[in-house]
Structure formats: C-alpha cells, structure tokens
Amino acid sequence: MKFVFDLDGTICFKGKPLGEKMVAALDALLENGHELIFASARPIRDLLPVLPSHMHGFSLVGGNGAFVVPQGGEISTVHFEKSIADEIVRLIEVYEAEHLTDSAWDYAYTGSHEHPIRRNIDPEQRARNVSLHELNEMVKVVILNSRNMSQIEEELQKLPVVIYRHGSEQIIDISPKGVDKWTGLQRLGLQPQQFIVFGNDANDIAMFRQAKHSICVGEHAALKQLSSEQVDSDEEQVIRKIIEIVEGLK
C-alpha cells in the first residue's frame, strides 16, 4: 500500500525534524513492504531537512503540488505564467507585502527574522535569498504580512491562482491554478483509492477526496468531514495510529 504523509502538524511538529519514534513507525511501514510519499506545503529545499537522510530519495510533493520529485529523480515544477507572476509582484509592491517567494530552488524572503516561518526556510543554507526580480521563475508565494491583508487577498482572489489560508498562521499561500497536492500525486502516478493519507489542514483536502483511507490529525473542520477517521494533534497518537494500520494490513 502507498502511504502519503503531510509533514508539519501531521508527523512533525513546531518545525522540527521527524522524531526518532516517528521515524521508527515509518520504518515499520517500509519493513512491511509499503511505500512512503511525503506531500508538504514546503518547497523541496525545506522539506528535506525534516526527513531522515535515508528517506531523502523517496517520492516527494512540495509546495502544495507545485514541486514534484519522483523516487530517486529530479525536481520538476509548475510555475506561474509570466503575466500572473508580474501581477502578483505588482500587488506585493502596492500593498507593501512581506513575503516568501520560491523558485525551483532559490527564494526571496522579505519578512521579519522573528517570523515563525523563517526558521523553516533553508536551514542548511543550500540556496540563495535573492530579490524578487532575480528569481527566474515563481513557483509558490506566501504573503506573511501587508499593510492591508484583506485587500491584497481580495485582489489575489481575482487571479487564476489557488489560495490557502493556513489555520492560525494568518498567512496567504498562493500556488498556480490547477495545482494541489492531488495533482502532484498524480504526476507521481498515483490513482484514486490506491493510497492511505495522513493530513491536518485545508491543503490536504484534495488528497483526502481521492484516498482509500484518510486520517485527519487535529480538528480541522472541513478535513475532518472528509476523513475516514481522526486522531488528536499529538505525536504519540499519530504513531499509535500508524502502528495500528500496519498491524491491520499484515
């Protein structure tokens, strides 16, 4: 069976790498012949540091589907068309927005050094933080703050893009139209009803709709409504559920 795991708030917490007990639970899946895929809002650059090194070659979906890496393969991206990218840049400038904008690898970050998202950006310093106009393509944009967040969101809603609001973080997460975690999984060859998924937020909804079995971690109302079952947002509870599923599939 294929298992798809979101990362932050699902199997890793507070931006920290996967804990030893969580890695052991995932290794138990591997030992029983199952396949692991990780699907995160993080770009691949920031996804790898939270995984143990022996899982770096696994199939990965990053940026809510905008980045895809097949097992042992290279990164491919879906980026904004130039006209749309130019309009996003204009809105960022007009509304004086602090942002994180990702290309395939490098990024532009203008937020506070104290912002919670900052600690997750390129912790191993593998990429360059450049100006927005130096990026050769725009794959994903996160608006962290603005002089008028409601107005910039209203303007962004007029564009052919996908927008997520992440829980209590009060950030605006923007991806190209037609991109979500399920489209990323499809690019890896997954078919509906052929995988089990764990997730915790709105950006996991598309995957939950297609899964054979789905586990909502925490209390996200819309996701919980689509899920097969729910567990508390607690590492030990998630580990127990993984082990329970492993035993049930033997």
Automatic annotation (TrEMBL):
TM region positions: none
Gene3D superfamilies, A to Z: 3.30.1240.10, HAD superfamily/HAD-like
Alphabetical keyword list: Hydrolase
GO CC, one annotated term: cytosol
Coiled-coil stretches noted in the UniProt entry, renumbered to this chain: none
Domain of life: Bacteria
InterPro entries the UniProt entry points to: HAD-like_sf, HAD-SF_hydro_IIB, HAD_sf
Record GO terms (molecular function): magnesium ion binding; phosphatase activity
Matching Pfam families: Hydrolase_3
PANTHER family: 5-AMINO-6-(5-PHOSPHO-D-RIBITYLAMINO)URACIL PHOSPHATASE YBJI-RELATED, PHOSPHOSERINE PHOSPHATASE
Protein name: Hydrolase
Lineage: Bacteria, Bacillati, Bacillota, Bacilli, Bacillales
